[in-house]
Amino acid sequence: MSRVIALDAMGGDDAPAVVVQGARRALEERPGLRFLLFGDRRKLEPLLASGPSEAFTVRHTEEFVPNDARPSLALRQGRNSSMRLAIEAVKSGEADAAVSAGNTGALMAMAKFVLRTLPGIDRPAIVTTLPGRNGPYVMLDLGANVDCDAEHLLQFAVMGEAYARAVLGKDRPRLALLNIGTEEIKGEGIVRKAATAIRERLPQIAYVGFVEGDDVMRGEVDVVVTDGFTGNVALKIAEGASRLYSSSLAEAFRSSVSARLGYLLARRALERVRGRLDPRRYNGAMFVGLNGVVVKSHGGTDAFGFACAITAAARLVESRTNERIIAEMRGLGGSDEAVAARVTAP
Amino acid sequence: MSRVIALDAMGGDDAPAVVVQGARRALEERPGLRFLLFGDRRKLEPLLASGPSEAFTVRHTEEFVPNDARPSLALRQGRNSSMRLAIEAVKSGEADAAVSAGNTGALMAMAKFVLRTLPGIDRPAIVTTLPGRNGPYVMLDLGANVDCDAEHLLQFAVMGEAYARAVLGKDRPRLALLNIGTEEIKGEGIVRKAATAIRERLPQIAYVGFVEGDDVMRGEVDVVVTDGFTGNVALKIAEGASRLYSSSLAEAFRSSVSARLGYLLARRALERVRGRLDPRRYNGAMFVGLNGVVVKSHGGTDAFGFACAITAAARLVESRTNERIIAEMRGLGGSDEAVAARVTAP
User: Fold this and answer.
1) What percent of chain A has pLDDT above 90?
2) What is the ipTM of this complex?
3) Buried b (16+ CB within 10 A) or exposed e, A307-322
């Protein structure tokens, strides 16, 4: 099926070149995709001229959201920015999803303002898939909500479970709360309250309890729920630790003639590991809980990473994650109004 | 110089065997060490009989703190436990430091109760060194304090800096606060407040600003300050990510004949990397802020890991970290009383 993806062509460290190159790479895998490119025509046209361009439509705007802009300011002043227009295209139905590598805070603020949250959801969250021992797992929130109460964590559980069903293709994803001790006696009060709420009010979810940081990648859990501060730190620490390991390894392979030779012999196997753990492959965090699909790519990504973000957006549209979240939240309390009342109650 | 280390012989998953084996390994490196072994004589004597035992003195007790005990209960009921008696030996001056692989919460509660905090310090913290790109860095708090305010983070900064001077041997360790954005506009209110407090009240500290999770290992920072919940998650996520990488690598090297051969050729270089990043090498988290040196070993460690914890304890005694913290806290406000008043002020 043909999908239209709205691209914020001016967001990210190497925009717009990486955006156009990334879209072309995504097209190789999914030739049915079509792109609305929001950005500066004078910069985009030379890039499009250098290769196939039938899948692209340029929507000119000279405005864009700077990387260091305050979200509130971007929301007020960025009405004609490439980011805002890409989100508006989702709202109007012109595009099925929007992808941006720009300022996360501004993207979240605009997406929330333009698309609104799904019925029963107070706050959208940022979710992504990450590499684990037995395949990928899902973690949220990754930074949209710094201060969370138990009710927010419960909503993240609903959203994370629906996302995992769609993206991991699991029938009954196992869900856990990130804590600093697997015994119920340890950890934060809010996390303990959320555990009780999930157990009592979401019996249909396969809630397996608390997990600690080192359990997360062990492959026993499919969805890890935490607040946005902890989730963002966890995500970036995991990236940093993987990078430390791979750079130390690269150094080791250069350290002697026999190590160099060893590398050449083991190269194919090593590249498979690197490929499986490559953070770029997991590029593309979705904003869940919104009336529409918005995917945030890493600001510093390359064309391969940006292509992964586009592919993630297409997959999310196809898997109808939002429809499932709406149904789950309805199941929690009946009508949309009842759901809304319930989830915001203390 | 001869140092006496009090060992909780009954703490940890494989106690007391790992404790005795670990102490023997530590002796190989530091033959001057002497050990007070607190635990069950009937279990300890056969272990001591199987090798050299001149460095050991057994202090018999049948009581110990179970791994899943509530800290408050352990504090009330564990007065004759091996853990408590090891800490009491530090208090009485019989031992220079105590090491335990037992229940962290109970160890912290007992150490705080028996040894008390240093003048000006409200709450002790757990600190350790971790592997980074250009050598180890220091992180705290790793789980002693789940809820922290800006004032606690300021005290952690003082303690972490003193610890880094001693353990990393750096003259002016660069200190940063863990946050979810390096720009001052992002992140948690408490972290922002702590940044202001550190900048204004600790001008002698080389405070470099906020770091994100992936900056932590890049080698640009020597001390990373955060609350105990985030720190514990970060520590364990980093361990999990390293383990995921190394197990994927081991699999890759077994996946083909040429990969196996490659491994053999690169083995020496690879073992250096593994050694440098080995979490066991970084075993031994110190409780800073107490009137005495107490080191917590990982509960599931082996003899090598336990030996590293003992060595860390000996090094901390020699480097006089506590004396430096007292001096710094005095410098913050004059007399001990003024310091105490100042650091608890809003």
Assistant:
1) 55
2) 0.84
3) bbbbbbbbbbbebebb
